[in-house]
Amino acid sequence: MLHLMKIRVARMGALAAMSCLGIAAAGCGSSPVSPGSAASSSTHGGSPAAGQASGTAGVAYAASLAYLNEKIVGPAFATASGLNYSGTAGPSGALESEIASKAITPDVFEAIGGDSITPLFPKFTSWYVQYATTSIVLAYNPRGKHASQFKAIASGAKPITDLFALLETPGLRLGRTDPNTDPQGRAFIYMLELAQMKYHLPSDTVTKIIGSPIASANSAQIFAEASLESTLQSGQLDAASAYLSQARQLHLSYITLPSAINLGDAADATAYHKASITITGNATKYGSPLTIDITVISGSPTGTKFVAYVLSPAGRALHQQGGYTLLKPTLTGSGAPASVLSELGS
User: Which of 89, 176, 213, 224 is least enclosed, having the fewest CB within 10 Å?
Assistant: First the structure.
């Protein structure tokens, strides 16, 4: 329970911090999301058209989707459906635990990686759809004291291998998320492990960069996912892990990493699996492509409408505009509603 309380406290205000960061074309004219009774939730309403049912689709989603869901997809869904949208952000693993314990009762769960959804089988759902992917990048402060070195690596003036020695620099302020609850936190560590193998770096490279036991949640490097990038932008960090989609949405300076280590290419799935981390509870997780996966919780009708919208051509186009790479929607499991199945060929 204490762990869940920490997660909720860490979420408070996170979406407010992100609400004025993002896609320039979308602007920042609407008010920041208010941290109300649900720490990171916000609601958008549409006007029901004749024959449309009223209701709210409550969506629990990986915090890296915060800007896209709150500013783009949620309002678009509300307008298209006449239903309301309410979003709650958090680390995928933490949200899975809260759903399982019934601490939260969303209609939809949107996670980075299906392994945060399958633990909910069969009590809460029996399927999920994978529909987009992203990759891990290293974002950096363009005004920090190490900025010139990061820029040289980003431009290709210096080799990518210089990045890992740079990250070991004493005093460099690095931010990442908790690998025990957040796929981004694990992905950053997988990336370092893959780089250590691929570039034949010293065997202690990962531990030197992390600066603590790999799975520790108490490192000074650990930040809540929804606030990590705003902390970087405020100048409090020199560098931070990020998804490519986040970096583009928030206009971050970043270093693109080779596909062999960035967890963004399905063709490299076998190689990614060589990276691993043992997290709280002695569960071992393995590297895999960074996919977005979505499901309906407990057969919710409004949740079904939201998922069908996300998988529709209109919903997928919004994700593509938000910096995600679209995949052919692929169903895992069974029992998905007909309206969801009808969008799998889109």
Answer: 213
